[in-house]
Each structure stands twice: as structure tokens, then as C-alpha cells.
């Protein structure tokens, strides 16, 4: 890629990563509910889930899913139900004392949840297919590798933004731990918000295809 085209892509990807979206709100909610380790694990899980879409987009799998109303609806429904289930679980666990340090098993669960939530979100696939091709250079050859390289950069920037959000949410949570009643309400609110993300995904429409 030319340096000018790459610079424009980096600027656009950075701005998009910094704009609060469902991914940022998701890791913030997980951090407020389970602490920094849960937030970081969710962040890297979501990053791996994002890479699934990058590879699928480069290989053309995402285009097939988005072109099929049945496949899009099926993937969307599974992802939405998983988010709603996570939200309900978070809400129900809010009555327990918040752990200062989660176990390796819980961290692994948060990592797995991040992968599943992101990988089952067809809106992420639609984003990559709409955004990245604008910056590909056909004359440079290897369009699949170009797509995957730009997708990797985009995922890395999104992950960096999520880590910053985790740090901010953890600081807020640490200050609130002295108020157990308030932190319980906050964790309940996190569960409601995560479930709300699932409902929002369930109502998402398939992007129009030409």
C-alpha cells in the first residue's frame, strides 16, 4: 500500500476505535462487574473474535453470510441470545460479594465469552466488509493479504481503546468498592446493559447488498 493511503486508513481506524460503541461498553460492563482481570480477558477474547471476522472477510465467508438472509439471521440470533444470557447471569451474580481478584477459571470464562460475543456478531463482519475494501489497492496485488493486514491493524487499535476503557472502569470500580450497596446496583446495571446489547443485536437488520 502507498504511504498516503495507509495514513488515511490509520487515521480513520483510530477515530473509529476511539468512538464509543457496543464493544467498548461491553468490556466496561464486564470490568465493573468482575474487575480488571475480567475486563482484560474480555478485551483479548473480543480481539480474537474480531480476528475471526478479519480472516472470514478476507476469504469471502463473511460476504456469503451477509448475502444470505437465513445465515445472517441465524448468526445474529445465536449471538443475541448469548449476550442476553450473559446479562442475566451477571445480574443474578450481582448479589454476591465482588471479588478483588478473579480465579483463572473465571478469567478463562471471560476470555471465552469475549470470543463468542464478537465472533457471533454479524455487524462486525458488515463493518469490516464496508470499511476495509475502501483502502485496498488492486494494483499492489494480494488483496486477501491486504484485507487481513488492515483488519489486523483495526483490531489492534480497537483492543488498545478497550484496554484504556478497562483501566478507567477499574479505577471507578475501585473507588466504589467501599460502597457495597452501590457496587451491587452497578453490577446489576452492567448485567442489564449487556442483555440490552443482546436485544439491540437481535433487532439489527441485515445490510443491503447490491
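Q: What amino acid sequence fits the structure above?
A:
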Amino acid at each position: 500500500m502507498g504511504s498516503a493511503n495507509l495514513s488515511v486508513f490509520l487515521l480513520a481506524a483510530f477515530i473509529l476505535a476511539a468512538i464509543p460503541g457496543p464493544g467498548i461498553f461491553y468490556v466496561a460492563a464486564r470490568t465493573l462487574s468482575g474487575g480488571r482481570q475480567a475486563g482484560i480477558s474480555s478485551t483479548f477474547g473480543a480481539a480474537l473474535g474480531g480476528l475471526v471476522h478479519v480472516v472470514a472477510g478476507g476469504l469471502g465467508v463473511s460476504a456469503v453470510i451477509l448475502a444470505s438472509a437465513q445465515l445472517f439471521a441465524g448468526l445474529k440470533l445465536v449471538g443475541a441470545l448469548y449476550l442476553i444470557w450473559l446479562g442475566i447471569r451477571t445480574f443474578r451474580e450481582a448479589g454476591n460479594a465482588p471479588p478483588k481478584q478473579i480465579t483463572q477459571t473465571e478469567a478463562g470464562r471471560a476470555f471465552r465469552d469475549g470470543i463468542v460475543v464478537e465472533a457471533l456478531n454479524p455487524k462486525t463482519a458488515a463493518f469490516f466488509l464496508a470499511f476495509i475494501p475502501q483502502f485496498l489497492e488492486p494494483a499492489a496485488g494480494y488483496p486477501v493479504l491486504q484485507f487481513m493486514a488492515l483488519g489486523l491493524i483495526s483490531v489492534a487499535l480497537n483492543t488498545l481503546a478497550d484496554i484504556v476503557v478497562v483501566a478507567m472502569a477499574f479505577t471507578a470500580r475501585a473507588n466504589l468498592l467501599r460502597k457495597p450497596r452501590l457496587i451491587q446496583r452497578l453490577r446489576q446495571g452492567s448485567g442489564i446493559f449487556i442483555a440490552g446489547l443482546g436485544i439491540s443485536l437481535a433487532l439489527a437488520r441485515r445490510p443491503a447488498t447490491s
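Q: And what stands out in the fold?
A: The chain has one domain: 3-13+24-202.
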